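Pipeline run #58 for the internal structure catalog. This entry was flagged by the ingest filter as a single-chain record with no existing model, so it goes straight to prediction. Upstream metadata was stripped on purpose; only the residue string is passed forward. Reviewer on rotation: M.T. Logging verbosity set to normal.
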Amino acid sequence: MQLIIYGCGRFAAYAAYVFQLDSPYQIVAHCIEQKYLANAKADYPIIPLEELPNSFPPSTTAVFIALGNIKERKRLFHYFKEKGYTLASYCSSKADVWPNLQFGENVFIGEGSDLQPFIQLADNCILFGARLGHHCQIQAHTLLSGCTLAGNVTVGQGSFLGLQSAVQQNVQIGQYNIIGMGAIISQDTPDYAIYQAAPSQKRNLHSSKLKGFL
């Protein structure tokens, strides 16, 4: 089936590359709103979003929304569904998954992701190198980047989990949380919460003084 990639940024270029080489879809173009076209660049033709139904109707073409921004990705998800489009999902052949994995539309499971059995991913979830324990449930419109979830964790709608963050087993992450890089979550979180780890401290020592190390 033909596939349109929404977006012209680096995630869109990455998505187009892996969809083309590692899925049954055939990339035919990118699309973006007319007002952004002047500065848009891509390896495939770029179609104004406003003209998409006439050029590539829903009967022949699927769409993947390649945006990291959760609010915009959610808005566009509903926009394309209202227009009648099927939203394509991608699971990398280089991800480690089990046959009973369940996922919705516009889901992206990138290479290096490691998902144990009995996992459910709702619509519009993006996983970049995430490790998910058994029986995790990931609600819609989330983004998980390089995080680790122990078994039976629930991640609420619209949440973001950053690089090297970790969540203890049986914990429920609230909706629209931001779990920053390196944060460790050991108990349930409320909606709209933000967590961050303590930043690393620069030592008052020149690296050249560490003999035998550099």
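catalog note: The first strand starts at residue 2 and ends at 6.
catalog note: The domain at 2-88 is CATH 3.40.50.20 (Rossmann fold).
status: ready for reviewer M.T.
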